Each structure stands twice: as C-alpha cells, then as structure tokens.
Amino acid sequence: MRLWMICHGNICRSPMAAAVTEALLAKAGLADEVQVASAGTSAEHEGEGMDRRAAAALARRGWPVPAHRARRLDPRAVRAGDRVLAADRANLAALRRLGLPVEPELLRRADPAAGPGDDEVPDPWFDGPAAFDEALTLIERACQGLVEELAAAR
After folding, report:
1. Which is catalytic among the residues 88, 111, 119, 123?
2. pLDDT per residue as tens digits for the range 40-70
3. Catalytic: 51?
4. Which of 21, 73, 123, 133 is the most exposed place for a label (fewest CB within 10 A)?
C-alpha cells in the first residue's frame, strides 16, 4: 500500500506529513508494508526543496527532515489500494477532479480530535514559524491516528 500525502505546492504540509508518517510506520513495524509519498495539486513549486520553516518545525520536534523535491501528483501513479490524503478541502476537491482510481480523503479524518468544520490542516505558508508548528501538531495527531488504524487492520 502507498499513502499519498497531498497539499497545494508539496513544500510544507505534505512533506511534513510524509516524514511524520514514515517515522511512525517504522516505529510500529509497518515500514515494509506501507510506502509514503507526497505531492501537490499544483506544479508551481515543482523541483523546489521543502520550505525551510517546515523543515525547522520538523527538526524542533525531533522528526527526520527528508531530502525533498516538490512534485505535482501524477494521477497515473495512484493505484487501487493506495490512499490519497489531502491537507484541506480545496486540495480534496482538486484531487476529486483528477478522476483517481481511489476516493481521496482528508488527512485529519484519522485525527480523533478533529470534528466537523475542524478537519483541515491550514496552509501555514503565508505565516510565520508558529503557523508551521500549529500545522505540524495537527499533522502529528492525524498521522498517529492513521498509523494506529493501519496497525489495527493488519
């Protein structure tokens, strides 16, 4: 199975989610069963590295900071059995328009603290370091719930 973490530009939320999920999968003994990839719904940052504020937020919390190059999601790369997890409703709508072989979902669907109207990871790109830390908190909770769900389904 492959998990696709998706945001707009693939430079902050989705690579943070991929890094956290990979680390949690390794801790849960699922790294050999589940692959994690990230991409964006836009190509505007294609080829760029992770936003330095996103990398700094990961490092402050002790998560690995991956070597990363932004890319746009190629719908042909998504296969049946994959899960495609969007950071917010705008990206979820963009993914639905692609006609993927699987139904995309919101990442925070796996966050037990998320409720109606509180099911997105807001884009921190326009704000400072605190917004990246807040986004990472939401990502951590959602990814923890996701990995627990995958472990229980084993």
Report:
1. 123
2. 999 999 999 999 999 999 999 999 999 999 9
3. no
4. 133
